Amino acid sequence: MGMGYTLVCKKCGYSRHLFLGCGMMYNEVLREKTEEARQGQHGERLRTLFERYPNGCIDAMNNLYYCPDCRTVACESSLDFFKPKDPARDAEDDFFGPDMDEFELVEKHQHLCPGCGNPMREVMRLTENEPVNCPECGGAMESGHPLLWD
Ligand SMILES: [Zn+2]
Ligand SMILES: [Zn+2]
Prior knowledge:
Oligomer: single chain
Largest sheet: 4 strands, antiparallel
Low-confidence stretches: none
Radius of gyration: 17 Å
Mean pLDDT: 88
Distance between the termini: 6 Å
Number of domains: 1
Bound molecules: zinc ion
Shape: elongated
């Protein structure tokens, strides 16, 4: 189940709709992202991790990322890399997607800003300490009403 969020700028009214979490097609997305990552389309680092842990897996949930430098907001698959706690575990068994209780985090994926190339920050929630500012005017963004997605 995923969530739709709207980010709204209090100052100029700019709004941005985002889909977070995962939808009904999660397994398909996960397979696709895993294939891409294995082939190195998401960076050399992930490709190497899959070589080292062939039965590892990535998190393909959509997260919200924010670039404080140029105020780009992006919604991307997390791509954090996990390895099974049991090294003999066969990931091919996961018809309904991996049970994440059986995995542990190896490395968080570093998302780079599509606008300026600087590292982006994962936004867990909107707080005053770590605000997300409007790409248009720089005002603080607020979340609108969450909507269920799927
Ligand atoms: Zn604004
Ligand atoms: Zn940027």
